[in-house]
Amino acid sequence: MPLRNRQWIYRTRPEGAIGREHYELVETAFDPTPAAQELIVRGHFISVDPYMRIQQAARNTWEEPHPLGIVQRAGAVAQVVAAGAEVTGFAPGDFVLTYTGWQELARCHPLEATKLDPDLAPVSTALGVLGMPGRIAWFGLMEAGRPKPGETVLVSGAAGAVGSLVVQFAKRAGCRVVGIAGGEKKCKFLRERLGADEAVDYRRFGPDEWRKFSAELARICGGESRVDVYFDNVGGLTSDAVLPQLALRARVVICGQISQYGGGLDEPAPGPRFLQHLLFQRATIQGVLARDFTPRMTEYVRLAAPWVRSGELVFEETMVDGFEQLPRALERLFFGESRGKMLVRVARDSDPC
Amino acid sequence: MPLRNRQWIYRTRPEGAIGREHYELVETAFDPTPAAQELIVRGHFISVDPYMRIQQAARNTWEEPHPLGIVQRAGAVAQVVAAGAEVTGFAPGDFVLTYTGWQELARCHPLEATKLDPDLAPVSTALGVLGMPGRIAWFGLMEAGRPKPGETVLVSGAAGAVGSLVVQFAKRAGCRVVGIAGGEKKCKFLRERLGADEAVDYRRFGPDEWRKFSAELARICGGESRVDVYFDNVGGLTSDAVLPQLALRARVVICGQISQYGGGLDEPAPGPRFLQHLLFQRATIQGVLARDFTPRMTEYVRLAAPWVRSGELVFEETMVDGFEQLPRALERLFFGESRGKMLVRVARDSDPC
After folding, report:
1. How far apart are CA A115 and CA A106, in angstroms?
2. Quick check: A287 and B270 CB within 8 A?
3. Which of A56, A80, A182, B72 lies at 20 to 30 Å from B300 by C-alpha?
4. Is residue B4 classed exposed, middle or buried when 0-12, 13-18 and 19+ CB atoms within 10 A define those classes?
5. How many CB atoms within 10 Å of residue A11?
6. B257 chain-A contacts, CB cut-off 8 A
7. Given the DSSP bridges, would you call strands A39-47 and A341-345 parallel, antiparallel or unpaired?
8. Are B254 and A289 in contact (CB < 8 Å)?
9. How high is the pLDDT of residue B60?
10. Quick one: angle between helices A132-139 and A297-310, nearest 10?
11. Cβ(B48)–Cβ(B127) under 8 Å?
12. How far is A237 from chain B (nearest CA, A)?
């Protein structure tokens, strides 16, 4: 007997901000019978991530633009509803991490699903602290940032899914950590919950005030040119302020440029030129992408899962309820309205599979 | 009996371009008697280099700004006039590399002088192909650029002291090399003398035409995002055009930003933001400085001197005659009027020591 499925179809390419108007919600019949090598899964937590907006840009980035007319691609934590006759290792009720996107029900090959252990940590963490954002926070900082004890690490987007972990990983590495976030509330969170030594509210500075912002960073870092590692999730004004403060042999990790995702990817916004600072300081800028570290996921989870279980590693989830909220939740990411990992909860354990 | 000496004193800090008006030519008496541990030297070739303008900026860069009221610092190839009683290893008539600046006569400690072998190569090459520019061309390309056979290497300022060597080193490394320079004459030089596979005249593009320039680079490189190594001496418009064409895991070497030396160091010029391309391509930008490789000079000279002697390595010198021409020669560097290494010849071998 066919079930009803709901899907968010990506319909039109945004020119500026992404929003509800670029999607269509469709309801279709869904045959719940799995093929021999197939899993039928029901999404529980569906992800919204800043990288989605990059793939919506018209230009090729790390792959071709997200096609129009198909379900919005996304990571999801789902529960197995049914497993085909030839499937081994998965049973109805199992939680899995999949890449089935913005739909309630989906079919996928077992190779596309990673079984999750609910005893290790809450399954939603597979999309956050123990998932893609955690992985790039760890490897981005450790492999590209290469922090040394006593160094100063500056993190932009420091209250976000990735940044909030980078702050804590850098503290573990023995660094002095300065977090940059929007609003005093987030700054308080950085200092009091995440252990940042200092926090700076970028909203105190107008769109042209990078010099003032830069001077404030110098003050907080104890002098000019004291930033050894800059882990950047934001770009734009924030980077304009940070880059003149790079220390000798500083490492800049470009993990995200969220301030540019409202159109600047197709039509670059102007900003002050700063490459000469790299020359003066013999500094390095390196772009990192989570997918490059996918083969090392086990290595990361082995380290971080005990910290999650013990509560040593603080991670927050901004949980939005309701499948119909997905486009709005994605949109909210770009207005700095979330803290930690933003997730949409589309089913509860008590829901019928 | 005192001799007469001429010196160029750096008097006022430029706000834009550097020129004659920032210097004063003074004539002073010079006591030619060396102290026991001293050399008296007479400059033969005195250097003008783009980095001088960086040190004239008001801001600290790799060191404090060049002080006002003293002789302009610069490298020089000089001849020993007299050696103190306790000096060993130097005799009158020896050619040495010193850092005695823009003055005809100077005194220095033997530790500040490197004896040159005129049989190895013309002594003027100690300021060019076998000196600082050669060293950073080699180590900048090899250590930061890490070219691999078959890769595409783009060089800006490709007809300059550093760039003209980078073009040839990259060819030796088995790369496809595209040089960027100003004017068709220089482009012809790149193709016909240096062996560049392609040459692009940046003067064909207006100050806002980075997209058109970028499209031209894509065409020449055989498609979008094909630049594996970008060795940058110039910055500005040229980098705006190149950076959107970076290939996967591209390496950008920032060796100079000469387009910004007319004031942009103190007051950054605006340009399009491009850090997202580093993210897409997981590319790296690294600033390099010749002085970091000073301890490896012998290693470089051992490799390159035979290529210079055999004529395999093309190097050009733009020789300006006359001590009084020094400020004008420096100024000319920033208008792209020279090819290869610009030098000022202040004495001839036949001059009395």
Report:
1. 16
2. no
3. B72
4. exposed
5. 14
6. 273, 275-276, 279
7. antiparallel
8. no
9. 83
10. 100
11. no
12. 10
Q: Which of B55, B230, B231, B280 to mutate to test the interface with A (most CBs of A within 10 A)?
A: B280
Chain pair A-B, CB pairs under 8 angstroms: 131
Interface test with A, best of B277, B279, B294 (most A CBs within 10 A): B279
Task: Say whether B275 and A287 touch across the interface (CB within 8 A).
Answer: yes
Distance, first Cα to last Cα, chain B: 14
Query: Which of A162, A239, A280 to substitute to test the interface with B, most B CBs within 10 Å?
Result: A280
pLDDT tens readout for residues B151-185: 999 999 999 999 999 999 999 999 999 999 999 99
Query: How far is residue B166 from each of residues B175, B179, B253, B304, B315, measured CA to CA in Å?
Result: 11, 9, 11, 12, 11
Q: pTM for this one?
A: 0.94
* A341 beta partners: A317
Q: Tell me the DSSP string of B75-139.
A: -EEEEEEEE-TT--S--TT-EEEE---SBSEEEE-GGG-EE--TTTS-GGGGGTTTSHHHHHHHH
**Nearest-10 Cα torsion for B313, B318, B320, B325:** -120
Nearest by CB: A284 against B256, B279, B286: B286
CATH superfamily of B132-291: NAD(P)-binding Rossmann-like Domain (3.40.50.720)
User: Is this prediction's ipTM beyond 0.90?
Assistant: yes
Spell out which residues of chain B touch residue A288, defining contact as CB-CB under 8 Å.
279, 282
Q: Which residue of A has its CA nearest to B271?
A: A270
CB contact at 8 A, A78 and A105: no
Q: Which of B257, B265, B279 lies closest to A287 in CB terms?
A: B279
The confidence band for B290, taking pLDDT boundaries of 50, 70 and 90, is very high
A180 pairs with which residues across the strands?
A156, A200
Which residues lie closer than 8 Å to B17 by C-beta, 6 or more apart?
B262, B263, B331, B334
The fold adopted by the segment(s) A3-128+315-345 is Quinone Oxidoreductase; Chain A, domain 1 (3.90.180)
Please indicate whether residue A267 or residue B277 has the higher confidence score (pLDDT).
B277
Structure tokens at B130: 């076998």
Instruction: State how far the Cα of A225 lies from the Cα of A222, in Å rounded to an integer.
Output: 9
Interface of B with A in 313-342 (CB under 8 A): none
Provide the CATH number for the domain formed by A133-291 in this structure: 3.40.50.720
> What tokens does A237 get?
């004004």
Question: What are the residue ranges spanned by the domains of chain A?
Answer: 3-128+315-345, 133-291
